[in-house]
Specification:
Elements (H helix, E strand, L loop, with lengths): L7 H11 L11 E5 L4 E5 L13 H20 L2 E7 L8 E9 L4 H12 L14 H13 L3 E4 L3 H19 L2 H9 L22 E2 L2 E2 L12 H5 L5 E7 L4 H20 L3 E5 L1 H4 L1 H11 L5 E9 L16 H4 E3 L11
Parallel strand pairs: 1-11
Antiparallel strand pairs: 1-2, 2-4, 3-4, 5-8, 6-7, 8-10, 9-10
Helix pairs in contact: 1-2, 2-3, 2-8, 3-8, 4-8, 5-10
Bound molecules: flavin mononucleotide.
Length: 339
Amino acid sequence: MTTTRPDHETLRGAIALAGRAPSVHNTQPWRFLIGEHSVHLMADRTRALPATDPDGRDLLISCGAALHHLRTALAALGWSSEVHRIPNPADPDHLAALEPHRHTPSDEDIALAAAIAHRRTDRRSFSSWPVPPGHLDLMIRRAAELGALLIPVTTGRLRTHLADAISQAASTQQADPAYTAELAAWTGRGRLADDGVPATSALARPAFHGDTRMRDFPNGTLIESAEDTAESDAGELLVLATPDDDPMSWLRAGEAASAALLTAADLDLASCPLSQALEVADIRALVEELVLDNDAVPHLILRVGWAHPAAGPLPQSPRRPVNEVIDFLPGTAHRSNDR
Ligand SMILES: Cc1cc2nc3c(=O)[nH]c(=O)nc-3n(C[C@H](O)[C@H](O)[C@H](O)COP(=O)(O)O)c2cc1C
């Protein structure tokens, strides 16, 4: 018999994969509600970062990434999703309602879903091998399909402006005790923690890779070889932007970030989102003016490149158990082992 909606085990599996989405400081600021015919994505503001992300831009980008991960996982499992974004004006934290429909997975669906398991945020230096333009083009195309511009800022004056903005924002944030306290609270929470940035994924020393200053997480233990850091770093910077600056745009930027990062992972590229320059309002305005010529609003920077050939695999960062992020809407029939 052909079923018209995924069973709860399928949904639970897809939501577990959605939970692998990148999120700012690994806060995982989302919840999923399962209804009879739909799955709902909710923002979880109890996991917000008021000092780092006062507007909640990063929070909604993170939720957008989870939304795209969920669609990708469902697509590979044979379900396309009709998505209604921010469907209830009275509840701005109700970010999306997804209605699954049977479909035949494409090769792209399967490849992107497979990339979920091996994508990592890689904060190490990258090798001197250039990223092929065709690889960047594919990331740009997939981001565009989700309504966002992904703009490579490769060389010259614009690249200098962007790298300067990242560095300046890092200095501004480091001077803010509320920011450093928040960062410390979300970093190196210990082996049993199921959220936050683990020490093993954070660099042991503050680092510039080429012109690019990395976020300085405290108490990191990730060490690079002197040989690797001596090589010039050919990491590309791409700015993710949309025409407007509102929660819908932030959500879409997150979906596009997910598409670009999974595409990079599928191409074996290493990647790292960078958001500091866009968390500080004045500096975000500078990036908008000097790098984007006021044509679009920047939401996130993606750094991509080739990992050094001898660099070891990175550990997976932790996630909350799927049961903690799932609820059932009242009246939704579910078997007892679905909980
Ligand atoms: C909106 C957003 C902003 C982020 N900003 C940064 C950043 O500035 N620096 C950084 O090293 N990682 C950044 N990250 C990556 C997260 O720290 C990372 O996704 C999280 O720790 C989970 O690790 P994983 O991506 O390896 O699964 C960001 C991720 C998102 C979604």
